[in-house]
Amino acid sequence: MLVQHTTWTNAERALEQLRAAGLLDMRAIASAPDDVLLPLIRVSGTPTIKLRRLRALAQTVEAAGGIEVFLAQPLDVLRPQLLATHGIGPESADAIALYAASKRTFVIDAYTRRLFGRIGLTPSAGDGYEDWRRWFEAALPDAGAALFQRYHADIVLHGKTLCRPKPRCSLCPLAPVCETGTALLAADA
In this structure, how many other beta carbons lie within 10 angstroms of the beta carbon of residue 36? Predict the structure, then answer.
């Protein structure tokens, strides 16, 4: 929740501040006063919005019986609960399900869309979030959560270092099969 619309560095700083204050716990987040939590998460940006979202998630988790019970639910129960929680969309729901609960779901983010769009691999069914997610999951039928975690993390790393909005194609091993890379490398030649 804290990384939405900010850098991971700023989200990490907010997490460290919550941890240092003994408030990195769903029950604590649900019950701590606003004036205690707001300064701790301010560094992650839009603190009042994020506080409301964090509280909504904490309440959802606590209503399910706590974090262990919540994350142990099957994906077909967990994901709808996450999506019904204020401030959680498909990408956040899948990130929580994949990384926190180790459920087999693929996270579709800007890095994934940009990388696969540039190399010409996109779902034929449409361009919506669910189209992309179903396409990835169908393309990797035997992959479990651990492989999805690794694959998504590799896509994010590639997107942060090479396949950026202004790409670094000269360093990219995918440039020969990438429309953007081929065009930029030809222009530089």
Answer: 11
**What is the structure's pLDDT at 185?**
84
Architecture of domain 8-100: Orthogonal Bundle (1.10)
Give the model's pLDDT for residue 187: 87
Q: How far apart are CA 173 and CA 162, in angstroms?
A: 10
Total-model pTM: 0.92
Kindly give, in sequence order, each residue whose CB lies less than 8 Å from that of residue 70, ignoring residues fewer than 6 positions away. 60, 61, 64, 78, 81
CA proximity to 149, closest of 92, 180, 103, 80? 103
As a CATH number, domain 110-188 is 1.10.1670
Any residues with CB less than 8 A from the CB of 167 and at least 6 apart, and which? 118, 180, 181, 184
Enumerate the domain spans of the chain. Answer: 8-100, 110-188
